[in-house]
């Protein structure tokens, strides 16, 4: 069995370039069919989930090819509107393809995504938003079918600012008649990146990064070249790794403005961070202090995806820190594994109480989910002796090569063997014959898409976005309800 072997007790010292963001590239790949042309994504992370998205695109008739860390996708050959159930099960976030496929061809079919390792993951907000836009979606035997619909611009209020639902509705709205306005939209930087991509393809999306996003539909969209934003959760993982092991690191390309909530907690614990145009320099505290309660919340609150890695780092803090997980039910599955390494953590429902400093020791542990697995690596760097981390398929969904990166940062981390999905990918690349790369529009400037210091698009205040005025257009093709 493949394992990650980490020998702890060595302070970190080194530099790493932060990979492209998983949670940004996945919706961007789902959006690619809207472009009806050649899309080249720079800084595209090589991840299991990206490979699953590529498989979905191939099932839909598109072709894809890698060149270093650039991925080129040709969606002009798009011909199918069905996502196979097996691929839906492989990656829950593939539900975001639904909005794009509906926008591109007016019908779609895919498996109903089930729960996942984080607990129930409903998609009711995705479906009710699409239905409000005129989609006739039926579920039978675990398969979602949507036939013969023409989408219509609509005003939609999300009861909770769901990231995936905001993305799905943005993509569907690109194919709708008139203007769609999404209120209480998610404000995550990945939403801003998706809007930047859609606009680079000729779309008209405004207000991303604020609570109100508006999309003018039915524009002529085309291919483009687009750089994926750096992964703020991977950056947070390596900051927590340094906080845990001690030392000083530089994260090239990290965007400090996306990491405000994480950096503020790490500074409270005594660490120092300095950023410039090239990235983020971080120095760990010699002795970590416990911090006030860490409550996960939608952006710009503390990210649920960074809860586990921060918890692992704060095992070393001298005192008690309380965590409150407010997004997902099963987000403490790493706790029993951390306990095997000597952690003192008690869980009471959504609250976890961490008592430090723990005297951590190496152990054989298993990744229970993506970020839980990363937390084990963070703790292992501070543990006495060797930790063997198993069940690496979770980590491969979100980290290109965590052993490579931790080694570059001065840690002692090695992986045994190569991931099966990487071997499969090599075979897939060998048989990929498509000549993609023609017809791409010139590179679109990123500047207009980048969020400002608050995570918002430049000039976009919270809740006061520059959005469209709804056209009130009639929608002749709306499905009967
Ligand atoms: C995305 C991220 C994930 C991150 C999460 C929260 C991707 C690929 N994944 O997941 O890494 O942890 O945002 O920042 O980008 N909800 C409903 N009904 C719905 C949709 C969501 O009740 O239809 C609830 C969820 O159960 C959860 C909350 O809303 O409690 C937030 O979920 P959401 O923002 O949708 O997360 P994802 O998009 O699935």
Describe the overall structure.
The protein has 481 residues and is α/β, with parallel strands linked by helices. It folds into two domains: 4-19 and 230-419, UDP-n-acetylglucosamine1-carboxyvinyl-transferase, Chain; 22-229 and 432-449, UDP-n-acetylglucosamine1-carboxyvinyl-transferase, Chain. The chain contains 15 helices and 24 strands. The chain has helices at residues 22-35, 48-59, 85-90, 97-105, 124-132, 163-174, 189-200, 232-245, 260-268, 307-313, 335-340, 370-382, 393-396, 402-408, 420-431, and strands at residues 4-7, 12-17, 38-42, 63-67, 70-74, 82-83, 108-111, 137-140, 143-146, 155-157, 179-183, 204-206, 212-216, 224-227, 247-252, 272-276, 279-283, 294-295, 320-324, 344-348, 351-355, 364-366, 386-390, 412-415. A four-stranded mixed beta sheet has the order 22-23-1-24. Strand 16 and strand 17 form a beta hairpin. Helix 5 (124-132) packs parallel to helix 6 (163-174). The longest helix has 14 residues, at 22-35. It is globular, with a radius of gyration of 22 Å. The N and C termini lie far apart (52 Å). Residues 437-463 have low confidence and may be disordered. Residues 23, 26, 93, 121-126, 160, 162-165, 186, 304-305, 327-328 line the site of uridine-diphosphate-N-acetylglucosamine. Uridine-diphosphate-N-acetylglucosamine binds next to helix 1, helix 5 and helix 6.
């Amino acid at each position: 069995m493949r394992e990650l072997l980490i020998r702890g007790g060595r302070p970190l010292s080194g530099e790493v370039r932060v990979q492209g963001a998983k949670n940004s590239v996945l919706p961007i790949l789902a959006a690619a069919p809207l472009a009806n042309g050649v899309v080249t994504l720079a800084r595209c992370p090589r991840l299991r989930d990206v490979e699953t998205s590529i498989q979905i695109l191939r099932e839909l008739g598109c072709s894809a090819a890698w060149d270093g860390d650039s991925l080129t996708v040709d969606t002009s050959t798009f011909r199918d509107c069905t996502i196979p159930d097996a691929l839906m099960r492989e990656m829950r976030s593939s539900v975001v393809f639904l909005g794009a496929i509906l926008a591109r061809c007016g019908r779609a079919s895919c498996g109903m995504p089930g729960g996942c390792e984080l607990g129930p993951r409903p998609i009711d907000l995705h479906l009710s938003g699409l239905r409000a836009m005129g989609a006739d979606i039926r579920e039978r035997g675990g398969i979602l079918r949507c036939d013969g619909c023409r989408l219509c611009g609509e005003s939609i209020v999300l009861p909770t600012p769901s990231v995936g639902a905001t993305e799905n509705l943005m993509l569907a709205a690109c194919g709708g008649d008139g203007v769609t306005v999404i209120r209480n939209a998610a404000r995550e930087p990945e939403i801003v990146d998706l809007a930047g991509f859609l606009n680079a393809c000729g779309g008209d999306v405004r207000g991303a990064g604020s609570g109100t996003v508006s999309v003018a539909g039915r524009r002529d969209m085309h291919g483009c070249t687009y750089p994926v934003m750096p992964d703020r959760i991977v950056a947070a993982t390596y900051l927590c790794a340094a906080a845990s092991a001690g030392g000083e690191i530089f994260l090239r390309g990290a965007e400090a403005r996306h990491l405000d909530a994480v950096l503020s907690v790490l500074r409270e614990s005594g660490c120092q961070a300095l950023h410039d145009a090239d990235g983020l320099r971080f120095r760990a505290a010699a002795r970590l202090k416990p911090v006030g309660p860490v409550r996960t919340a939608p952006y710009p609150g503390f990210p649920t995806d960074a809860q586990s890695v921060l918890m692992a780092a704060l095992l070393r803090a001298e005192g008690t820190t309380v965590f409150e997980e407010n997004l997902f039910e099963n987000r403490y599955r790493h706790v029993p594994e951390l306990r095997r390494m000597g952690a003192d953590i008690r869980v009471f429902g959504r609250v976890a109480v961490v008592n430090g400093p723990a005297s951590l020791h190496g152990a054989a542990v298993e990744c229970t989910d993506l970020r839980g697995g990363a937390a084990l690596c963070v703790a292992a760097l501070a543990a006495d002796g060797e930790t063997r981390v198993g069940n690496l398929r979770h980590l491969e969904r979100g980290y290109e090569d965590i052993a490579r990166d931790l080694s570059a940062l001065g840690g002692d981390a090695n992986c045994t063997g190569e991931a099966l999905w990487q071997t499969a990918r090599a075979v897939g690349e060998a048989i990929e014959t498509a000549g993609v790369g023609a017809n791409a529009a010139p590179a679109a400037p990123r500047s207009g898409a980048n969020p400002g210091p608050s995570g918002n698009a430049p000039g976009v205040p919270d809740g006061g976005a520059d959005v469209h005025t709804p056209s009130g257009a009639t929608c002749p093709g709306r499905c009967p309800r």
